[in-house]
Amino acid sequence: MIEARDLIVRLGGREIVRGVSFDLAAGEALGIVGESGSGKTTLLRALAGLEPIAGGTLRLEGAPLAALAPRQRSRVLQLVFQDPYGSLHPRHTVARALAEPIAIHRLDRASERTVAALAAVGLGPEFRFRFPHQLSGGQRQRVAVARALMLSPRLLLLDEPTAALDVLAQAEMIELLRSLRRERGLAHLLVSHDLALVAALVERIAVMQDGRFVERLDAADLRHGRAQHPHTLELIEASRSYRRAAASA
Amino acid sequence: MSALLEIEELRVRFGTHEVLHGISFAMERERLALVGGSGAGKSLIGRSILRLLPPGAAMQARRLAFDGIDIAGADAARMRDLRGRRIGWVLQDPKFSLNPVMTIGAQIEEAFRLHHRISRGAARERALASLEAVRISDPLRVHGLYPHEVSGGMGQRAMIAMMLAPDPDLLIADEPTSALDGSSARQVLAILDDLVARRGMGLLFISHDLDLVAGFCDRVLVIEQGRIVERCAAAALGDAQHPYTRRLLAARPRLQA
User: Fold this and answer.
1) Distance CA A231, CA A227 (A)
2) Is B101 within the bounds of a domain?
3) Domain containing A42: what range?
4) For residues B209 and A239, what is the distance between their CA atoms, to the nearest angstrom?
5) What's the total number of domains in chain B?
6) How far apart are the C-alpha atoms of B92 and B174, rounded to whole Å?
7) What residues of B are in the A interface, CB distance below 8 Å?
8) Residues in chain B within 8 Å Cβ distance of A163
9) Could you tell me if the ipTM is greater than 0.85?
């Protein structure tokens, strides 16, 4: 589904993604972990066509990404951001937010599709008439996922999808994303600094540092601390619960 | 001697809708965690102590006292004096609490000079020292940077440096590490930990993450829908009984199986 080879992304003259290669098959899930500034979000944005690619090749379902019109691309992949407040128009109702992709793509049965997308994320039809500020953080993020589902994409690009949620809403979002993968065969590309979240959602993991993948491992390896690269070991150490004694040592 | 903070029957309402239903607790110079999901009302407790409630909120308490001073009845001048000088406040995202058009050093100096009559030179010395106290390795350079020129972790440390400048007795930290990645979050926790221990400050730590507070605080109060539903020593969280506490404990994915 995605084939990336030696991908390079430059922002403001600086190389942020410095030669990244990976494959992602239909229905598969890949997690990219790294600290802030490692380049993981820029990589995700480049995959979504939001940042220009300065080098290497990127193929989406066999075709070079650059050759796809934005409309074609958006029917294959959709992006869910960390903060749904930033991605939902504050003065548009949920129904209007969800109907936008339908109008752009000239699809029929708008209201039927809207209700179905809301149902897929566990929200009832009454949510159509609410505004973003009338929703809890968890509900807003569900609406963002519902919107991403409107065009029935085959791949979701997820950028820290639970970072703005409390632990209870986080647990529900994890369950929702898992069930979407199971039931619809949706592929996931998840970017996060939260190792426990990534290990809960995907099987394959790439560790990114300074614009490069420094290690690839699977979720079981991560859970058991079977990592080789010093940076991966650092991330694992940093994800353990804070203990005073350990910190002062 | 009275406790550092005493709260009895604190209620907050928006119009006729009550959101805090009689909160009571006392704290000493310790690390106390307020934990709950979003909307539980934990941040409103912190804001009540500072009397910085959002518009439309009305508060009422049988007793709300800081170091024996009646906060509920204090006038505006008294509150301005308490805020910053004796009670510090650190919020989740330094992007929104630092002034974007002032250098970090100038903001910390301002915090000093608001509360102490000291010369510019002395304020600069103290600003550099407090940047060093939050483990910024190159205080001279960071002193001259603007907030957008530093990372989230560095911004949060600068924020803490500013709050600590006047040497407060109580620090209210509302989700201070939620916007940070793992290693920056740990660094900020280690700094808070160290400062509380060395300065003998009280720390009210507001968070939705029980795992995090379990290793960091002395005591935990669990808040659900405006009520304290559980009180326990942080070390005894594993034995917590209330179903809401159990749910919070179970919700967080853990790396180690």
Assistant:
1) 9
2) yes
3) 2-248
4) 13
5) 1
6) 6
7) 37-39, 151-153, 178, 180-186, 189-190, 193-194, 208-212, 214-216, 247-248, 250-257
8) 178
9) no
